[in-house]
Amino acid sequence: MRAIRSKNTKPEMHIRRALHGLGYRxxxxxxxxxxxxxxxxxxxxxxxxxxxxxxxxxELTSCPTSKTPKRNADYWVxxxxxxxxxxxxxxxxxxxxxxxxxxxxxxxLKDFEQALSRIRTFLGPKSTTRQV
Length: 132
What we know:
Elements (H helix, E strand, L loop, with lengths): L9 H12 L5 E2 L10 E3 L4 E6 L21 H24 L3 E6 L6 H12 L9
Parallel strand pairs: 3-4
Antiparallel strand pairs: 1-2, 2-3
């Protein structure tokens, strides 16, 4: 399991490239915030998490990758439940601190344009003021 990435995953990189191309600027994996959000928009106090459906326990019934493994269930069930609990704790802590949070699921990226539109709606207009 050492080969499983937690940062800079393909879905995350796809979103980062698209948002950067649209002119949005962000910080990645800011350690000072609960859960080290994948994308942090400090000026707007907004954070975006890009969750893998399997690892974060996506509960949508139409999501094929979120199924719990049948083998070694004694290991996987508590592990995946703890991941979901930790995600909820981090989101709650961020919101308590005054941050707005958006979770983007890996399966949502199958319709990338719709997912990108959802993210852009969440972020609002990008800052156009520049200091020289």
